């Protein structure tokens, strides 16, 4: 490649994070989802074509990968998280690519960061301090993540705590039982109260789709949590047996499209859990572009929840720039 040539134009220019208007929700409208039935094999067939319909190579691929970096919620959610690990993660979020790669991509002097850093509530303060002045928001999981089965008042208190510590985004988990028993009113009411507890912080609702049994349940839960005011809907905690998949993502983005058509309100999407390959990240970006359009390729409406994805993206960009792969352990994360 010719070095120094700006690549970040194929999927659009590198833009500053611009939060979109919030989703204030609507009343619970069962008419919007009661009759919905999702055909599993049709969803699987359509999902299987997404990665095959478009191939991007060389500088175009590098540009899409830069876009993917900007949309990552760089995550650590492990029992052995330490302040030191969170600080290293934040340093990586500020500076996701090595200087020589940034220069070769022609992006020197441009702001290139991940979309956010995502941590447990007790790590929010450390992350906020480490990201000071960077403009990178801290996202906190809350509400008894990952199972979401602590007493409800404690779940709300956890949201308030994370917000008070400085989190600008809260990733809540829903009560799966409400979906599995079809108690949409309870799901709506709980999610509304969580949204209230978030205050000015944007709320992402984690559906834990691997535990919802059917794609029809995924569609209905998506609609109800959007009506309750979720700013994003998110596939998974990363801790379920099955996490982000393309068929589930397709159903959720179609729900976002339907909700937009019915309410006029835009909701973001966050696939999370098990997304580690740069190639897979590209497939998700293509899905967003095809199903929802260009606006859903920006961090205000699209995020990857991922702990390891950046490692592979950096390797692929290094390969594009130098023609060689280095081993993954050269791209330390946390
Ligand atoms: O929300 C983010 C997920 O927990 C990340 O999952 P991952 O570690 O499989 O990338």
TrEMBL record:
The gene is deoC. It holds the Pfam family DeoC. Residues 1-27 are annotated as: Disordered. Pathway: Carbohydrate degradation; 2-deoxy-D-ribose 1-phosphate degradation; D-glyceraldehyde 3-phosphate and acetaldehyde from 2-deoxy-alpha-D-ribose 1-phosphate: step 2/2. This is Deoxyribose-phosphate aldolase. Keywords: Lyase, Schiff base. GO terms for molecular function: deoxyribose-phosphate aldolase activity. Belongs to the DeoC/FbaB aldolase family. DeoC type 2 subfamily.
């Amino acid at each position: 490649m010719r070095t120094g040539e700006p690549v970040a134009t194929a999927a659009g220019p590198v833009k500053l994070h611009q939060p979109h208007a919030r989703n204030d929700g609507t009343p619970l409208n069962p008419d919007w989802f009661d009759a919905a039935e999702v055909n599993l094999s049709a969803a699987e067939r359509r999902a299987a074509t997404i990665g095959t319909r478009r191939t991007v190579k060389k500088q175009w691929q590098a540009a899409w990968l830069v876009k993917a970096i900007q949309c990552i919620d760089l995550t650590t959610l492990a029992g052995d998280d330490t302040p030191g690990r969170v600080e290293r993660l934040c340093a990586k979020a500020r500076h996701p690519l090595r200087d020589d790669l940034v220069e070769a991509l022609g992006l020197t002097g441009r702001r290139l960061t991940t979309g956010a850093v995502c941590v447990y509530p007790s790590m929010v303060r450390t992350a906020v301090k480490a990201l000071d002045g960077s403009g990178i928001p801290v996202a906190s999981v809350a509400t008894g993540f990952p199972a979401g089965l602590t007493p409800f008042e404690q779940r709300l208190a956890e949201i308030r705590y994370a917000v008070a510590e400085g989190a600008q985004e809260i990733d809540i988990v829903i009560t799966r039982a409400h979906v599995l028993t079809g108690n949409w009113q309870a799901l709506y009411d709980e999610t509304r109260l969580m949204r209230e507890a978030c205050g000015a912080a944007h709320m992402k609702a984690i559906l834990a789709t691997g535990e919802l049994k059917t794609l029809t349940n995924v569609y209905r839960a998506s609609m109800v949590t959007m009506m309750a005011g979720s700013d994003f809907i998110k596939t998974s905690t990363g801790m379920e047996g099955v996490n982000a998949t393309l068929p589930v993502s397709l159903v959720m983005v179609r729900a976002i499209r339907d909700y937009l058509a019915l309410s006029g309100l835009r909701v973001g999407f966050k696939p999370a859990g098990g997304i580690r390959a740069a190639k897979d990240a590209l497939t998700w970006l293509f899905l967003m572009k095809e199903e929802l359009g260009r606006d859903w390729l920006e961090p205000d409406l699209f995020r990857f929840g991922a702990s390891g994805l950046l490692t592979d993206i950096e390797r692929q960009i290094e390969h594009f720039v130098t023609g060689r792969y280095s081993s993954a352990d050269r791209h330390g994360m946390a």
